[in-house]
Design goal:
The complex is a heterodimer of chains A (112) and B (114). Chain A contains no helices and eleven strands. Chain A is an all-beta fold and 112 residues long. In chain A, the strands form two sheets. In chain A, strands 2, 4, 5, 9, 10 and 11 form a six-stranded mixed β-sheet that branches. Chain A has a five-stranded antiparallel β-sheet with strand order 1-3-8-7-6, with no helix packed on it. Chain A is globular. The mean pLDDT of chain A is 91. Chain B is mostly beta strands. In chain B, strands 2, 4, 5, 6, 9, 10 and 11 form a seven-stranded mixed β-sheet that branches. Chain B has a four-stranded antiparallel β-sheet with strand order 1-3-8-7, with no helix packed on it. The mean pLDDT of chain B is 93. The chains are: A mainly beta (112), B mainly beta (114). At the A-B interface, strand 4, strand 5 and strand 10 of A face strand 5, strand 9 and strand 10 of B.
Amino acid sequence: QQPVQSPQAVILREGEDAVINCSSSKALYSVHWYRQKHGEAPVFLMILLKGGEQKGHDKISASFNEKKQQSSLYLTASQLSYSGTYFCGTERETGTASKLTFGTGTRLQVTL
Amino acid sequence: AAGVIQSPRHLIKEKRETATLKCYPIPRHDTVYWYQQGPGQDPQFLISFYEKMQSDKGSIPDRFSAQQFSDYHSELNMSSLELGDSALYFCASRSTGGDLYGYTFGSGTRLTVV
């Protein structure tokens, strides 16, 4: 039931682009994306609600295909600060009963 | 802006001891979540509270208990500690009225059981 992310790890040179995918076997209400640096707390990047929307800010954007229960995170013109582990998090319902189930994670390393 | 405050940051306990982790959510956030993250693993949901009532329970051992107090801070109590309980424990808070907002995580408590 845990969302599966791909790839598991990716190494980029600064300025390159990357796509991280998140796939769930269950119907979803929303998908979150978080970035976590080693030993630190996950930091919220964005949330996508069911409806097939695409969101983004700066050089990071994401899409959510509700029918396929899949989401993708797009990182363009990567910077060294993008390094970390990216987690998608899924919610199957909203409101007081909602909870986040984290995906398997994608380790991203950006090098010079 | 106020963040989620967790204490202590680090905790070393011996096997079979007890530990209490504290979490102070962002003011006006009505939901608190506890997660456990082992080395190299994704965060695992333990338990959540909405308006001081337990709202959901995940893979939390019976040796663990948690509650949320009238001032909205939450405590995770862990007894009969085992080596496998060594992990990062995160607390997160959220306003359920804001579907557009994600979870705000505290800096975590690193528990080491020796």
